[in-house]
Amino acid sequence: MATSLSDYPERFAPGIPVWLRPPRGTARAAVIERAWFHKGNVILKFVGLDHINAVEPLAGHQVCVPLSARVVPPPDEFFQDDLIGCRVELENGEVVGTVVDVVPYGGGALVVERIHPDGRRQECLVPFVRAICTSVDVVAKWIRISPPEGLLD
Fold it and tell me: CA separation (Å) from 119 to 114, 115, 135?
C-alpha cells in the first residue's frame, strides 16, 4: 500500500517503469504489474515481486517515475523534489538557507535549514504561499521569500 503524492492517477498504469527509492541507499528499477485504489491509498503489484517476503523490505521506499516520464506541471505548480535543494533567499538576495523537505501542513510548507555564522543549524517552516514565496526558479534552484516579521526566528 502506498500514499499517492501524484495528481495523475494514470501514473499507476500497468507496464509503467518506476524506481523504488529507499530513504537511504540506491534505488532499484521495477515495473508496475497492477494498481488499484483502496481507501485513498494505492495498492501496487510489481512484476516479479510475487510474495509478501519480496515486498516487505520495500516499506518506506518512494515509487518514482523517471524524470523523462514526468508530466509538465501547470504554471506556478512544482514537484516537491524540485523544491528540495533550492537556495532560499530574501528579496534583497540575502541567503536564508536551503530547502531540505516539503511538508503538507496547511497548504504546504518548506522546511528550510539555516546555518548560522556560529555553525549552529536551525530548521524553520516557511509556508509555501505566494504572499511569502514571491518567486521560484526550480531550474536555477532558488526561491525568494518575503517573510512576515518573526517567521525566521
Answer: 9, 6, 28
